[in-house]
Amino acid sequence: TGLPDSTLPPFFSYQDQALHAEGVPLQRLAEEHGTPLFVYSRAAILDALAAYQRGLAGREHLICYAVKANSSLAILQTLVQAGCGLDIVSGGELERALAVGVSPDKIIFSGVGKTRAEMRQALQVGIGCFNVESRAELDVLDEVAREMGQRAPVSVRVNPNVDAKTHPYISTGLKGNKFGIAQEDVVETYRHAAACAGLRVVGIDCHIGSQITQTGPYLDAMDRVLDAVESIEAAGVKIEHIDFGGGLGIDYQGNDNPPAADALWQALLQRLDARGFGDRKICIEPGRSLVGNAGACLTEVLFLKPGEQKNFLIVDAAMNDLPRPAMYQAFHRIVPVQPRAADASGTVWDVVGPVCESGDWIGRDRALAVHSGDLLAVLSAGAYCMSMASNYNTRGRAAEMLVDGTQAHLIRARESVADQTRLERLL
Length: 427
Ligand code: LLP
What we know:
This protein has 427 residues and is α/β, with parallel strands linked by helices. The chain is built from 12 helices and 21 strands. It has helices at 26-33, 42-55, 73-81, 91-99, 116-125, 135-147, 186-195, 216-234, 261-274, 288-291, 324-328, 417-421, and strands at 12-15, 18-21, 24-25, 37-41, 61-66, 85-88, 107-109, 129-132, 152-159, 181-182, 199-205, 241-243, 281-284, 295-305, 312-315, 334-336, 348-352, 361-367, 375-378, 399-404, 407-412. The strands form 3 sheets. Strands 4, 14, 15, 16, 17, 18, 19, 20 and 21 form a 9-stranded mixed sheet that branches. Strands 5-6-7-8-9-11-12-13 form an 8-stranded parallel barrel, surrounded by 5 helices. α2 (42-55) packs parallel to α9. Bound molecules: ligand LLP. Ligand LLP is lined by residues 66, 69, 87, 110, 170, 207, 210-211, 245-248, 285-289, 324, 328, 384.
């Protein structure tokens, strides 16, 4: 049967033996819109945001949602209307940001590889800050801005050499990573930036990784960044805002225990105050922690395929919809939408998709009592699922819905084959 409610993410619950998002039964949405289907809870997103807003209350701050986590327009719109700025990493994300009406000065442009065209595009609309990751990027941005008769607002990303204690593919603050500028080169980089006619130094930033579940690495990174601010200002360059990036993890397994956003910020602000930087404007770039646990992916069980070594449950969602298990061996809880009486056999299944790869698995060794045609919900699927989805095997990307109370809005239609082949030409 289904897990007890206490282990479901907030705003997901069993009501009369049926899984709901807020007040909407998920079975009904799947019947109306088909599967795979992503369903997000608006209240869950706003609740996650509220924890950050409480944590930073009374401080000058800007919460820039990291668009890459889930870039659906209705989600961006929800967060922007609730006061967020946006953290972008491409010209495409910039256009999404503008499409939902965010004030350009609340846009932060991150990423190691911005093109000249992207720099121009962002300068034209007047974004708030470029988070620059190398000396070479700084020089190109300076040149592009001067050509346009502008001064680009910049912040340099410091690599604080702190272990975020997360999966190596999503750890970014170590010396061996491609991100940021080494601590020992930071002052010289700022001296240089301050002398460039096309640049205006506004801040400093760092981001040490993603799915971080401990407070320690954040405190260590903060100390390193504040050390850098002290040296930079001693060299005569003023830092207006400090951007601590994103990275806060969510509970995927039921026992990951990440700190709550408000508790994390209580600890961080204490350190900030203790070191005499309590009056600085704070920026953050959370992605996963705002949307990850607000989403589930509904999938139908196609076939039961018991075997000698492994039992496979073949479902209609696959690695193209939910790439995190294949890419990071990530764990997502999988629960029945309409639980059946527990299977006395206690059969354990590998939940796999239809894609022609052995890496196409969604969950391994899961005890589930199901028949073919049943619906399953893959939980914690609000972040880095739809935004990383692909068309591999010419599978259309899933539809997306946003639930608000007892209402459910279709926010992205299911992709058709015609949508997929639209740009292709026969010889
Ligand atoms: N800021 C910067 C500069 C980033 O690179 C990222 C994420 C964020 C903010 C937002 O981090 P968050 O709060 O979401 O942890 N696809 C991987 C995660 C990649 C994260 C990339 N950077 C996954 O599915 O786990």
